[in-house]
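Batch manifest, entry 17 of 40.
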Amino acid sequence: MYFKAGVVFLASLALLTLLVLAAIQGNAKPNQVVEHEEWLEADVNKVSGDLVEKVKPGDTAGLILRRLGFSAPQAANMIDAAKQIYPLKNIHIGHSFTRQEDKGTPAVYYQIDADKKLLLTPNMQGKWEAETLERKVNTRVNVIEASIENSLFLDAARAGLADNVILKLVDMFAWDIDFARDLRKGDSFKVMFEENFDDEGKQVGYKILAATFTNRGHVYSGIRYETKSGVEYYDAEGRNLRKTYLKSPVKYSRISSRFRSSRKHPVLGYTRAHRGVDYAAKTGTPIRAIGDGKIVYKGWKGGYGRFIEVRHNNGIHSTAYAHMSRYARGMKRNKYVTQGQIIGYVGMSGLATGPHLHFEFRSRGRAVNPLKVKHKPAKPVPKDEISAFRLQAKEMMRLMSLFDQPSSWG
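Output type: structure tokens
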């Protein structure tokens, strides 16, 4: 059992190494986005003479097949042939039909999803037949690094990192770095990620394999590793990056008011304690539960406006979220929520002078400073897997170090 698992692990690592080395040794620089045509093999949509029709609002399979040059009876026969394989009443906007000719014999492809496509061909008697084919998925490993001079999103995008990868990078380190208040000019990151593309060059998936983030001189590292329990991100020592609670309930914001024993209330005008932290953000910004738990209060609560309180699973801690513009769909009393789940959206309901989230952290009912709460990590790499993890982590960091050219742009 362990020998077999070890062979699979080493084979996967070897394949990853080849992918990374291919990227390094090719014509493209590691930090450049490679045009798809440079590395995708020819497919049905690349063959000269093919006719391609994308599904538009209001389209039916019959209309599209007519546009591809088939008669109404032919289109009806093709749709009938596909019924048992994939009903063409289920076509989706943006997906495409492709007509290809081979010595006068037509073939029609329809992209069902990222993994499968439908093929329609006439047999020797002229009757249409249908089958599904697996779509080829092309994989590319890339490494991008950049320094933060303006903002994380702006500088990462200028370096060539897609928004979805930036968001995943933020999620990876959200337990250690408060991206609302901790980032500084000169902070930097380096991320190695795998992208998957279908046979038309459309991205159909991605995953971060390893990353480092330097914040205020401290280097945080994360390595993707799959244990028997599932996929997690760990630091180089096998400690889980995931903690009991997120550092911030709002991803991209600024702190407008801190936890204080006394503060002049901006609306009421007199001084009283401020038992939480205010995160200023645009109306509609998503608010996340910082940990797993059950909603024990949802509704209007005086000056707090639209308010949610979550009692966390340890029974000791609870968190409160106030001044929401609206609640997320499905939120109700006694509903269980998970860490990172969106529970509402920033607003200025109740006594508020501008859109913000008022956030409180309570221990045994007593408000404590959320910015000073120590968060315990989730389970580390299991002891019986730590050797394999360390081998993978060492190799990942070595591969990432091969890309040593800094990002640059005009």
